[in-house]
Amino acid sequence: MKNILVTGGAGYIGSHICLHLQAGGFHPIVLDNFSNGHRDALAADIPVIDGDIRDQTALDLVFERYHPDAVIHMAALIEAGVSMREPARFYDVNTHGSMVLLDAMRRHDCNRIVFSSTAAVYGNAGLEYLDETLPIRPESPYGKSKAMVETILADYASIYGFHALALRYFNAAGADPAGRAGERHDPETHLIPLALQAAAGLRDGMKIFGTDYDTPDGTCIRDYIHVDDLANAHIAALHHVIGQTDPNFDSINIGTGDGCSVKDIMQLCQDVTGRKFAVTNEDRRDGDPARLIANPAKAKAVLGWTAKYTDPRDIIAHAWAYFTKND
Ligand SMILES: NC(=O)c1ccc[n+]([C@@H]2O[C@H](COP(=O)([O-])OP(=O)(O)OC[C@H]3O[C@@H](n4cnc5c(N)ncnc54)[C@H](O)[C@@H]3O)[C@@H](O)[C@H]2O)c1
Ligand SMILES: O=c1ccn([C@@H]2O[C@H](COP(=O)(O)OP(=O)(O)O[C@H]3O[C@H](CO)[C@@H](O)[C@H](O)[C@H]3O)[C@@H](O)[C@H]2O)c(=O)[nH]1
């Protein structure tokens, strides 16, 4: 059984990936500093180290004890909007933290890594679909902090012989279809969980950040990808980097290929939950690209992966089921 170090594994996406790793015959070991994660989001038999990716000593202990065969590196600060006000924290955790981790991997002869990148690296490309051949132009320090890690990984592949794959996720949403895990950010900033809180009467209503974008209804468009599909993509990615003979770096989009506007999501959340809530228009949020929709063809070609959940109603329904069970 292969040992897989999952940094940030106690977070939203990480906890779903751990479920899939265990089901897929891997042995996850989680390193998380619990700045945004939950111990009870993980099965009791998963070793969990409460530590920071910027802490060389903590990393040395983990590598010496568990000798991971590969790393899934998810630990990061995640909110593009916050990064517009506090860039230093994002470069420190996301970029510098990744370098400390990569150097621990080198010290301990572990050179296979799947990295959580983001659609935010594309910025405002002005195109209908985004594919991996486009030049990247991130708008926010968050997107830039991730783009820098992609650049570093490319050099570590060509110079140090790493096998590295960056998965550029579009907007993760939903919850484990069996209800074992879900999204629990506090404070919450993501669109769908906030709308579900509004549907449940836990907040007064929803604000739409920007209605004057160059999109059909004026609100931002995103490609919402089910967290269960995202977790499956990681299993495929892991098999890919573990099976690779020659060192390599590559970036692959993980999305559905379809987009929903903020207004679409407001309506769908009210339809799926059967509850109405107030929606008001606000100014734009800094750092938001108008439109992010994946061309998912490369994921299919290279990893044999495609999204199973293509109807956003299913994504919202799973998130709502988890929310109503746990709140
Ligand atoms: N949620 C999305 O839509 C989305 C989209 C694209 C990319 N991503 C990327 O996916 C990854 C996971 O995102 P998420 O939504 O699950 O976020 P999350 O905040 O739920 O998970 C991140 C985890 O990393 C941990 N962490 C943060 N800083 C750390 C540090 N210095 N050392 C150790 N652990 C640390 C947090 O405690 C948390 O458990 C992130 O890298 C994020 O940038 C997320
Ligand atoms: O109360 C709200 C919250 C969000 N939005 C809008 O909804 C869209 C989606 O926002 P959000 O759910 O916060 O996600 P993103 O800012 O698109 O970022 C997510 O998706 C990115 C990939 O596209 C990841 O890299 C990030 O980590 C992840 O937070 C954006 O246009 C926001 O302006 C609102 O209008 N009102």
Automatic annotation (TrEMBL):
It catalyses: UDP-alpha-D-glucose = UDP-alpha-D-galactose. This is UDP-glucose 4-epimerase. Keywords: Carbohydrate metabolism, Isomerase, NAD. Pathway: Carbohydrate metabolism; galactose metabolism. Residues 4-255 form the NAD-dependent epimerase/dehydratase domain. One of its GO terms (biological process) is galactose metabolic process. InterPro entries: Epimerase_deHydtase (IPR001509), NAD(P)-bd_dom_sf (IPR036291), UDP_G4E (IPR005886). It comes from Thalassospira alkalitolerans. It is an enzyme of class 5 (isomerase).
